[in-house]
Design a protein that fits this description.
The complex is a heterodimer of chains A (109) and B (180). With 109 residues, chain A is α+β, with helices and mostly antiparallel strands. Chain A has a single domain, classed as Arc Repressor Mutant, subunit A. In chain A, 54% of the residues lie in helices and 13% in strands. In chain A, strands 1-3-2 form a three-stranded antiparallel β-sheet. Chain A is globular, with a radius of gyration of 14 Å. In chain A, 20% of the residues are buried. With 180 residues, chain B is an alpha+beta fold. Chain B has two domains: 113 residues, Beta Polymerase, domain 2, CATH 3.30.460.40; 57 residues. A five-stranded mixed β-sheet of chain B has the order 1-2-5-4-3. In chain B, strands 6-7 form a two-stranded antiparallel ribbon. In chain B, strands 8-9 form a two-stranded antiparallel sheet. In chain B, strand 6 and strand 7 form a beta hairpin. Classes of the chains: A alpha+beta (109), B alpha+beta (180). At the A-B interface, loops of A face strand 7 and helix 4 of B.
Chain lengths: 109, 180
Amino acid sequence: MLEPLLGSRNGERVLIFLLARQEGYIREIARFFGSDPDSIQKQLVKFESGGVLVGRAVGRTRVYSFNPRYPFLKQLKGLLEKALTFYSDEERDRLLLNRRRPRRRGKPL
Amino acid sequence: MKPIGQMTCAELAAFIESCLREKGIDVVLTGGACVSIYSDGKYVSMDLDLVNTLFAKKREIREVMQAIGFWEEGRHFTHPDTDLFVEFLAGPLAVGEEPVREVHEISLETGILRIISPTDCVKDRLAAYYHWNDAQCLEQAALVAQTRVIDLEEVERWSKVEGKIDDFSRIKHRLAGRET
């Protein structure tokens, strides 16, 4: 959807994922889209060095989210939200309906 | 010219900025180093954050930095004669979602230092406090407000734009010092 603007399909995937889930890490995003982790990492590093995203270490994993201090954040999110409305219902549901609440250890299902 | 190993944080920033400017690269000092300068050294930062305002290519910046003895290590540049390290941040020059309109110029022995104003320095630190709940940054903002004259009404207006007026009301008393 925004590939002509962002110059990369994986660039759009990274930003759309973070819009929907608030945060994410390389393997999680790559697995979700069936993308190459190296390509996803390249996009995350690019957006981080451009100030669009911030990364923080959680254990041995680097978790990325939008940089709340990025001056065009509101406008960028608006654009991504608009782009998300063009995704199929199935794609949108997969992105948005994701369990984030904790699950007790050992609980069946 | 003073050797790099003897330069203060402000002098080193002015020297680097001047060398870059000769090649048409405009950068402005922001971040913790400004707190260090505006608090007269009450806060110490070893990190010089220079915003690459006109989006110069990294290769061009690297060439200038290498010519004055700095080496790139990951995202930073280091020099064997100083513990201060330098990072170039992507533009635009902004505090929160607003552009920085006023850049101060301070003439030093090593060059002209282009630096965000004390008021913008306070906003910059508050942005980190508001968005990441970083208490150290609130302390730094308070330190600048107590040492320099800042425009507290402007900080209040900006906080409102950032959607943080309630947070500002809670911490306003910490910034009361030498405001206009």
